[in-house]
Design brief:
Blueprint lengths: L6 H14 L20 E3 L4 E3 L6 H4 L4 H23 L3 E3 L7 E3 L22 H9 L9 E4 L4 E4 L28 H32 L14 H12 L38 H16 L7 H36 L1 H14 L5 E3 L2 E3 L2
Antiparallel strand pairs: 1-2, 3-4, 5-6, 7-8
């Protein structure tokens, strides 16, 4: 198909051609009938026309005005055939006799890919599953009912419903056998709160179940059907074999059943050993790498990192020991404050025992 061309450019080119050759006759408009060697394939639902005829090779060689003219003529002929097919469809006036003429397109025959995946069906709620199991069919009822008290049509449920809200009524009948001292208004309000909470809990549970069903991958069905393929029968046989306590290790196999390896990801990790007679080049490379590491002068241990680690450990031990000494001094000071008389006598006795000519060595005083 030819590239899109602006109308102004076409008109300007036509005007320039007329000015250059005024004596030439104007080009005759082409007719609506187009002849093709092979008929085109049409998909009117998608407005698609497929031309099986090969394009002229001589006119498509190179790049220039001749090639553009050939492509434009080819696109015009195919578009004319497609429009002729659209005019052959049954048409009607939209919006009355003065409305535009509209043709009803048939269903597309070529499935076109979607931009996004189709939406997944909503999983059924617990009530829908129960109704399907019991055969309960949903009956459509009108949302408006006649209210005898208000003499008007009101909603069946919700705000301003027919009959009014029982919790808002000014008079409540005491049921038979109930405590006459019980507040029936408070009981109605409590029952309504419980119903609202129960409905909200069921709604959240349905949402959680739907989210879990959307995230988990459902297992393939194994129930028997009318026509089962070979793959379905093989899958059912494999599942039945591994359903034993030994996971099918001692189960006999069918005569022509292939031996399958256990799937990866189950039973823990498997150790892989090198073969005795295997890749000699890889073994040689590993041995040379080991010898190169042993003979290298660079030590395997990072001395700088080890020394820094040792210094940090010594600093941490010294800081912890200093903190313990400060704690012991604080306790001793508190004890002396609690017993000032006893501590004063001891200090005085010590001062009397110290001679005048004593000397201090290493923080302790000795007698002369």
């Amino acid at each position: 198909m030819a590239a899109a061309v602006r109308v102004e450019e076409l008109l300007a080119a036509a005007a320039a051609g007329e000015r250059e050759a005024p004596s030439e006759e104007p080009p005759q408009p082409r007719g609506v009938s187009v002849e093709k060697d092979l008929e085109l394939e049409f998909d009117l639902g998608n407005l698609l026309a497929i031309d099986p005829n090969p394009p002229p090779a001589a006119g498509l060689r190179g790049a220039g005005q001749r090639r553009e003219a050939v492509l434009r003529a080819l696109a015009r002929d195919n578009a004319q055939l497609l429009v002729a097919q659209l005019w052959a469809l049954p048409a009607e006036r939209a919006g009355g006799a003065a409305g535009p003429l509209v043709a009803r397109l048939p269903k597309p025959s070529y499935p076109l890919p979607r931009e996004k995946p189709p939406p997944k069906p909503r999983p059924p709620t617990r009530w829908e599953q129960f109704a399907r199991l019991k055969g309960i069919r949903r009956r459509k009822r009108s949302s408006l009912v006649w209210d005898e008290q208000a003499k008007e049509w009101r909603r069946r449920w919700g705000y301003r419903r027919a009959g009014g809200d029982p919790a808002r009524s000014w008079l409540v009948e005491v049921p038979a056998g109930a405590d006459p001292e019980e507040d029936q208004f408070a009981k109605k309000r409590q029952e309504k709160r419980e119903r609202v909470a129960r409905n909200e809990f069921n709604r959240l549970r349905n949402l959680a179940r739907a989210h879990h069903a959307a995230t988990t991958v459902p297992a393939p069905p194994l129930h028997p059907t009318g026509h089962q393929s070979r793959e379905e029968l093989g899958l059912a046989a494999r599942v039945a074999r591994v359903s034993t306590a030994s996971l099918g290790r001692f189960q006999p196999r069918l005569p022509k059943e292939p031996v399958e390896l256990p799937p990866r990801g189950r039973g823990g990790k498997k150790r892989h050993f090198e073969p005795v007679l295997g890749d000699l080049a890889a073994e040689r490379r590993r041995q040379l790498e080991l010898l190169r590491t042993m003979n290298s002068k660079k030590p395997a241990l990072d001395i700088t990192r080890a020394v820094n680690k040792q210094l940090r450990e010594e600093d941490a031990e010294a800081a912890s020991a200093k903190g313990k000494k400060k704690g012991q001094r604080g306790k001793r000071g508190r004890r002396q404050q609690q017993r000032p008389g006893r501590g004063g006598k001891k200090s005085g006795a010590r001062r009397q025992q110290r001679p005048a000519g004593g000397s201090a060595v290493g923080g302790k005083r000795k007698k002369a």
